[in-house]
C-alpha cells in the first residue's frame, strides 16, 4: 500500500467507525421499540449522527452533497455489508409465530455475503411502522435524488414481480473504494465498462495546432476549469445544460486523440476512450445498454469521454425501408439524447464532419477542424520529433522535407520511429536522408499513395 495513502485511510477509518457506531445504535433502538423491550430513555430522533468536522472522504462527500440525516442513514446502511456486516445480524431474527423471517425487516440473505439491506430495511429502520415517515424516507431513493442520481446506490430488483421495496441497496464499487482509500478506482476495461483510460507524457509544447484549432481547444479547457462558476450565475443554470459536447474532425494522425489526452492531463480530469468493438452490437438494444454503463459510471465523475471513429456510432440516420433501419435510427436518437443529458465533456472524433448526423452537430458547443499541418507546422514537427541522441545527418534539410511531403504529425512520428529503429539496428550514429525517405515511402504506401 502506498505510504501517501495511509494518512487518508486513517482519517476515513476513524470517521467511518463513528458512523457505523451510529448505525448500530439506530438498529438497536429501532428493534427495542418494535419489540417493546425496555428501550433507552432517548427517542429515535435523539440519536444524532457524528459531527462532520472530522475530515474524511465520507464526511467530505456528505458535506459537499448536503445529505440529510435520513440520507446518511441509507448511505451507511448500504455500506455496512462491505465494512462491518455483523451490524446487520440483528435482522436475522425470526418470527416464531410464523417460523419465518420478519417481512418488515426486508433484506436479502445470501450464502456468501450475508444480509444485504433492501429499501424495506431502510424504511423500517428509519420509520418503523409510521407510514408518513416511511413515505418521507422513500422519497430519498427517487431517481432524481442524490444517492440514486449520482449512481452511488443502485437499486437492484432481479424479480420484476417483487415489490419495489424489495430492491437491494447496492453500494457502487467505485464509491466503496473511495470511502475507504480516498482514491477513485479506475474501472476495468471489459464488457461491463467498455472504455479505456488514455494518458500522455507530452505537453502542449509538443503539439502543433492551427490557430483556429487552438481557439476551439482553449474554449473547452476554459469550460472545464470554469463551468461550475458559470452555471452558478443567476438564472443561467435553468437555460444551460452542464455538459460540453464537441466534434474533432480531420485526417488521421492530426492529433485528435492526443489533444483529448492533453485536455485531461492539463485540467486534472481522467479521459476514457470508448472501445467501439465492445459497444457496437448487431442485437437490437444491446448497443444502448453497453453505452449506458459508460455514461452511468461517468456521471458526476468529471471524466472526459472520447469517442474515436465516432461515425460508427453517430453516423447519419437512414430513410426507413425496413425494421432494421427503424431500430438503427432509434439507436442514434437514444445516443443523441444520452450525450445531450450527460453533465461532463464528450468529444467525438471523425475523419469527416459530413459522416456525423447533423442532429448531433446542432447540439454541440463546438466543432474543431484538425487539418494536415502546413509547411511551417510540418517543419516544427520534424524538428521536435527526433530524439536528442539520434538526430538527422548534417546534410538533411528538414524544411525542404516539409515542403516536399504533405503528411500528418502521426505519420511523422511513425517515420521517426522507423528511422531510429533502423539506425540502432545498423549501429548508425545519425539518420540519413535516404532512411527518412524510406520511412516516408512506407507511410504513404499505407494510405495508397504512390511515392
Automatic annotation (TrEMBL):
Pfam families: AAA (PF00004). Residues 242-374 form the AAA+ ATPase domain. The keyword ATP-binding applies. Keywords: ATP-binding, Nucleotide-binding. GO terms for molecular function: ATP binding; ATP hydrolysis activity. The keyword Calcium does not apply. InterPro entries: 26S_Proteasome_ATPase, AAA+_ATPase, ATPase_AAA_core, P-loop_NTPase. Signal peptide: none annotated. It comes from the Bacteria. Belongs to the AAA ATPase family. This is ATP-binding protein. It comes from Pedobacter psychroterrae.
Amino acid at each position: 500500500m502506498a505510504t501517501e495513502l495511509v494518512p487518508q485511510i486513517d482519517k476515513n477509518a476513524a470517521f467511518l467507525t463513528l458512523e457505523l457506531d451510529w448505525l448500530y445504535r439506530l438498529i438497536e433502538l429501532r428493534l427495542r421499540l418494535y419489540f417493546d423491550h425496555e428501550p433507552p430513555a432517548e427517542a429515535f430522533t435523539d440519536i444524532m449522527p457524528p459531527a462532520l468536522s472530522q475530515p474524511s472522504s465520507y464526511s467530505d462527500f456528505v458535506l459537499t452533497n448536503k445529505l440529510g440525516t435520513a440520507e446518511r442513514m441509507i448511505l451507511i446502511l448500504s455500506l455496512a455489508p462491505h465494512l462491518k456486516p455483523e451490524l446487520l445480524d440483528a435482522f436475522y431474527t425470526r418470527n416464531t409465530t410464523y417460523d419465518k423471517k420478519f417481512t418488515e425487516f426486508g433484506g436479502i440473505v445470501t450464502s456468501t455475503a450475508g444480509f444485504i439491506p433492501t429499501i424495506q430495511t431502510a424504511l423500517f429502520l428509519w420509520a418503523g411502522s409510521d407510514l408518513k415517515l416511511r413515505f418521507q424516507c422513500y422519497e430519498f431513493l427517487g431517481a432524481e435524488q442524490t444517492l440514486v442520481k449520482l449512481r452511488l446506490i443502485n437499486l437492484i430488483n432481479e424479480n420484476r414481480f417483487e415489490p419495489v421495496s424489495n430492491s437491494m441497496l447496492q453500494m457502487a464499487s467505485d464509491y466503496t473504494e473511495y470511502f475507504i482509500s480516498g482514491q477513485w478506482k479506475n474501472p476495468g476495461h471489459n464488457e461491463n465498462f467498455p472504455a479505456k483510460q488514455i494518458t500522455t507524457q507530452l505537453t502542449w509544447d509538443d503539439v502543433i495546432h492551427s490557430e483556429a484549432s487552438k481557439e476551439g481547444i482553449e474554449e473547452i479547457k476554459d469550460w472545464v476549469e470554469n463551468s461550475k462558476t458559470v452555471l452558478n450565475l443567476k438564472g443561467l443554470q435553468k437555460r444551460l445544460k452542464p455538459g460540453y459536447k464537441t466534434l474533432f474532425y480531420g485526417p488521421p494522425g492530426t492529433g485528435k486523440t492526443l489533444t483529448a489526452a492533453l485536455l485531461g492531463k492539463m485540467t486534472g480530469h481522467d479521459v476514457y476512450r470508448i472501445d467501439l468493438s465492445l459497444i457496437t452490437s448487431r442485437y437490437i438494444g444491446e448497443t444502448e445498454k453497453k453505452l449506458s454503463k459508460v455514461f452511468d459510471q461517468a456521471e458526476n465523475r468529471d471524466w472526459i469521454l472520447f469517442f474515436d471513429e465516432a461515425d460508427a456510432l453517430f453516423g447519419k440516420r437512414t430513410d426507413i425501408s425496413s425494421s432494421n433501419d427503424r431500430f438503427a435510427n432509434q439507436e442514434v436518437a437514444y445516443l443523441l439524447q444520452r450525450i445531450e443529458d450527460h453533465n461532463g465533456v464528450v468529444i467525438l472524433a471523425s475523419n469527416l464532419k459530413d459522416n456525423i448526423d447533423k442532429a448531433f452537430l446542432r447540439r454541440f458547443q463546438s466543432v474543431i477542424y484538425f487539418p494536415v499541418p502546413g509547411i511551417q507546422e510540418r517543419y516544427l514537427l520534424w524538428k521536435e520529433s527526433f530524439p536528442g541522441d539520434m538526430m538527422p545527418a548534417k546534410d538533411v534539410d528538414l524544411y525542404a522535407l516539409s515542403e516536399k511531403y504533405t503528411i500528418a504529425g502521426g505519420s511523422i512520428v511513425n517515420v521517426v520511429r522507423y528511422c531510429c529503429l533502423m539506425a540502432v539496428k545498423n549501429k548508425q550514429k545519425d539518420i540519413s536522408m535516404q532512411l527518412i525517405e524510406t520511412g516516408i515511402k512506407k507511410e504513404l504506401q499505407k494510405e495508397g499513395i504512390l511515392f
